[in-house]
Design a protein that fits this description.
The chain is α/β, with parallel strands linked by helices and about 250 residues long. The chain contains 9 helices and 10 strands. The protein has 2 domains: about 160 residues, 3-Layer(aba) Sandwich (Rossmann fold); about 80 residues, no CATH class. Strand 7, helix 6 and strand 8 form a beta-alpha-beta unit. The longest helix is centred in the C-terminal third of the chain and has 14 residues. It is globular.
């Protein structure tokens, strides 16, 4: 059974079909990339999968259960976690404090009034573990504002992982990164492969072809091709529509 299934999903903004009868499947442990030109509808699709935007029609299934009408917070409790194109860390907090807030939000309770949050093992331990997993273990007490852009993206991923998700929706995790930072993030995501179902929207084609088990190409809200990376790389329709004749 697919971890995530999308059937005939439609989202219109006036006369524009941002998602136009889109079908999609993500297998357990699979990294499935969605690529396409600017304006293809990729971020709109991710926003619908996260529950932040309601589709006009169609279905979204998680482990066979219809979640189409569930809100984002309900989907988060089911194990769906999303990252954003723009880094959303709190700059005046340390890395550890940022991840502790993510842990606390997932646990769904407030901090204990008489106990400093920094001494609550139920928050610090999973937060520290998440930072170790993304390579920021030695940077946990550094203010987010003092971190490089690539480190802030790693921190955001730690915040996502702290919620113990089953499904990651990664919306351009390499956005704004230098080549060295992109390569470092790619290596990090390679280490996470197989542990989660991952829907990856990304413009860095080198990263996409290294990370993806399968790739779906989105053009004007419709999937024009889906297959293994090499199938997509050599698909004439994809080369014409997106990758370019000399891809």
């Amino acid at each position: 059974m697919s971890l995530l299934s999308v059937r005939n999903l439609v989202k219109r903004f006036g006369g524009l079909a941002a998602t136009d009868g889109f079908d999609f499947d993500l297998l357990p442990g699979e990294t499935h990339a969605i690529i396409g030109p600017n304006g293809a509808g990729k971020s709109t699709l991710i926003t619908q999968l996260a529950g932040e935007l309601k589709p006009d029609s169609g279905k979204i299934l998680l482990n066979g259960q219809d979640i189409t009408h569930e809100r984002a917070e309900q989907r988060a409790l089911r194990g769906i976690a999303r990252s954003y194109q723009i880094t959303s860390v709190l700059s005046s907090f340390t890395a550890l404090e940022n991840v502790m807030l993510a842990v606390q939000a997932h646990q769904g309770h407030s901090f204990k009034f008489w106990t400093p949050a920094s001494r609550q093992a139920s928050l610090t331990e999973p937060a520290s573990l998440a930072l170790e997993r993304v390579g920021l273990g030695s940077r946990m007490h550094v203010l987010a504002s003092d971190m490089a852009h690539g480190e802030q993206r790693q921190l955001e991923l730690a915040m996502v992982l702290a919620g113990q998700p089953k499904l990651l929706l990664l919306d351009e995790p390499m956005a704004g990164m230098s080549q060295a930072e992109s390569e470092q993030m790619t290596e990090l995501l390679l280490r996470l492969k197989g542990q989660y179902g991952i829907v990856l929207v990304e413009h860095d084609m080198d990263a996409v072809f290294r990370l993806a088990d399968r790739i779906t190409v989105l053009v004007y809200g419709r999937g024009i091709a889906c297959g293994l990376p090499e199938q997509i790389r050599t698909n004439p329709e994809v080369r014409m529509a997106y990758l370019g004749d000399d891809a």
